[in-house]
């Protein structure tokens, strides 16, 4: 019969070390999945959208703290390495108000129809 594991023994230290590295790998995997989803979403993501996709708040905050994400405004994040289009503010508005309509002067300016 095997000897029981006690805290402070070599066996429990190895188990703790294994659990630590396994946790780090899972965290990296969650971050990698989040980055992939944000890339497919155009580089911008709302916190609510991330939560709906199973991305935890801690993952978003961790990516922000590592400099991978930039917090553009409250609840809106952008990939740091994303090319910023000229109409970035319109993209931010579209993310904030998904069913909104860009009209009048903003639409004309977007399509370069103003003087």
Question: What is this structure's SSE topology?
Answer:
Layout (H helix, E strand, L loop, with lengths): L9 H31 L3 E3 H6 L4 H9 L3 E5 L2 E4 L8 H9 L7 H7 L5
Antiparallel strand pairs: 1-3, 2-3
Calculate the terminal CA-CA distance, rounded to whole Å. 86 Å
Q: Count of helical segments?
A: 5
Spatially, the strands of the biggest sheet line up as: 1-3-2
Instruction: Please report the total strand number as a whole number.
Output: 3
Give the CA-based shape: elongated
Helix content: 40-55%
Oligomer status? single chain
3D architecture notes:
By secondary structure, the protein is mainly alpha-helical. 54% of the residues lie in helices and 10% in strands. It has 5 helices and 3 strands, in the order αβααββαα. The protein has helices at residues 10-40, 47-52, 57-65, 88-96, 104-110, and strands at 44-46, 69-73, 76-79. The protein has a 3-stranded antiparallel sheet. A hairpin with a 2-residue loop joins strand 2 and strand 3 (76-79). Helix 1 (10-40) crosses helix 3. The longest helix is centred in the first third of the chain and has 31 residues, at 10-40. The radius of gyration is 22 Å and the shape is elongated. The model is unreliable at 3-9 and 11-16 (pLDDT under 50).
What would the keywords be for this entry?
115 residues; mainly alpha; 54% helix; elongated; disordered N terminus
Structure summary:
It is built from five helices and three strands, in the order αβααββαα. It is mainly α.
